[in-house]
């Protein structure tokens, strides 16, 4: 019995009422981006019709209001993550931007030739390429924590990779391609035993399960607003104060400085040191609205609901001939990736679309994962708090029909 009223939640999301090709939409591409509840849309309108002004600059009334709203959003998000201080919460453009920030600043501050950066075999391109760029710049080496055929990290091999050359570890909490929930507590504990900081890509975690940065003892954690029911173009970097103070700034510009002369510039305190230029103010208050909405429903209720959806999806898809799950992790969240017979995922995806079912096909920005399984891509169904059992039934029926046509 669900602890959340899914039908009521669905009514809060205008886009879910849309039709495609005249058929009610089944939206199962939530790992790519989520739909937005009315309160987020209203908040964006409120921001622009009532308080829009530049933050941190003017003495005038509106600028104060905009600054207050922006800083209140930071406080709400800090509380959501259980950060020790709001100053540990940096507004970014998204997950990709947050990882680039840390890779760039950490690289310039702490990486020497011969050092090692560890990522995992199931990372999104955005948690691979920024580290590759940095390693190339610094003469460092990128090494990979391998995974097994179930799509789970091989923890013995992780342990074996740890040594004094490893300077930072960047792993995903939840795989966007496979749905695997990684043993991040174990990873962080082993890393910290050797004084190695860890960055967690929580792009597929914060919307699905409780995430407490102090309980995790995580050094850096990043996510995107648009995947947690908020606007695009806004994201969060959480960093331990101690680390953020030690890192050199990323981008230079307005707001991130204390004083500027042509001879020397001194930098602002946290969090402004990492927020150069006019920030995404409407995005920040929109994200706050999304997080408050989610908190009202309760992240633990969402976790339980989505767990039932995942189990139901797997058991229903198992009814289909030729079904092959890509990744079979014991701990899974948010997404199920599969193939049917040797049908190309794009062909399947196209025929699902014609039946009003929106799923993602392809490599999901995780080409190394597809190479590992020797496949061109997968069909991925991914869930949100508003996904219901009927969505899954329509996915299964549409897949069956599509497969019959393509065989
Ligand atoms: N990491 C993971 C695990 C993701 O799922 C995504 C988005 N698909 C990203 C990083 C990148 O997020 P964004 O494009 O919002 O920066």
TrEMBL record:
* Native organism: Chitinophaga tropicalis
| CDD domains per record | SufS_like
Query: Which EC numbers characterise this protein's activity in its record?
Result: 2.8.1.7
Q: Name one GO molecular function term.
A: cysteine desulfurase activity
What is the protein's given name? Cysteine desulfurase
> Which residue positions does the secretion signal occupy?
none
The biological processes this protein is annotated with in GO are: cysteine metabolic process
Q: Tell me the lineage of the source organism.
A: Bacteria, Pseudomonadati, Bacteroidota, Chitinophagia, Chitinophagales
User: What's the catalysed reaction?
Assistant: (sulfur carrier)-H + L-cysteine = (sulfur carrier)-SH + L-alanine
Q: What keywords were assigned to this record?
A: Pyridoxal phosphate, Transferase
Q: Which cofactor does it need?
A: pyridoxal 5'-phosphate
The record's listing under Pfam families reads: Aminotran_5 (PF00266)
């Amino acid at each position: 019995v669900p602890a959340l009223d899914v039908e009521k939640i669905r009514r809060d999301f205008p886009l879910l009422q849309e039709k495609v090709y005249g058929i009610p939409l089944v939206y199962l591409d939530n790992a790519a981006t989520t739909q937005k509840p009315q309160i987020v849309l209203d908040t964006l309108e409120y921001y622009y019709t009532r308080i829009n002004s530049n933050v941190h600059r003017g003495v005038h009334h509106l600028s104060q209001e905009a600054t207050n709203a922006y800083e209140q959003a930071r406080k709400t998000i800090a509380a959501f993550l259980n950060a020790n201080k709001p100053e540990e919460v940096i507004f970014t453009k998204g997950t990709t931007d947050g990882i680039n920030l840390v890779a760039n600043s950490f690289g310039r501050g702490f990486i020497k030739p011969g050092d090692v950066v560890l990522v995992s075999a199931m990372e999104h391109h955005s948690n691979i390429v920024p580290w590759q760029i940095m390693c190339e710049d610094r003469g460092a080496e990128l090494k990979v924590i391998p995974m097994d055929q179930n799509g789970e990290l091989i923890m013995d091999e992780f342990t074996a990779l740890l040594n004094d050359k490893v300077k930072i570890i960047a792993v995903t909490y939840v795989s966007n391609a496979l749905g695997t929930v990684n043993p991040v507590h174990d990873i962080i504990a082993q890393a910290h035993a050797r004084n190695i900081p860890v960055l967690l890509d929580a792009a597929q975690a914060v919307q699905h399960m409780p995430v407490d940065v102090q309980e995790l003892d995580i050094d850096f954690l990043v996510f995107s607003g648009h995947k947690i029911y908020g606007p695009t173009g806004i994201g969060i970097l959480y960093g331990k104060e101690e680390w953020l103070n030690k890192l050199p700034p990323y981008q230079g510009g307005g707001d991130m400085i204390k004083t500027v002369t042509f001879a020397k510039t001194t930098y602002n305190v946290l969090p402004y040191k990492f927020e150069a230029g006019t920030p995404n103010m409407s995005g920040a208050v929109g994200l706050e609205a999304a997080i408050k909405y989610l908190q009202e429903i309760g992240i633990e209720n969402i976790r339980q609901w989505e767990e039932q959806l995942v189990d139901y999806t797997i058991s229903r898809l198992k009814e289909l001939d030729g079904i092959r799950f890509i990744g079979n992790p014991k701990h899974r969240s948010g997404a199920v990736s599969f193939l049917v017979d040797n049908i190309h995922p794009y062909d399947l995806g196209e025929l699902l679309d014609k039946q009003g079912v929106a799923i993602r096909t392809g490599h999901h920005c995780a080409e190394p994962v597809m190479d590992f399984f020797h496949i061109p891509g997968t069909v991925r169904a991914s869930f949100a708090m508003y996904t219901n059992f009927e969505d899954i039934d329509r996915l299964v029926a549409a897949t069956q029909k599509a497969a019959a046509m393509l065989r």
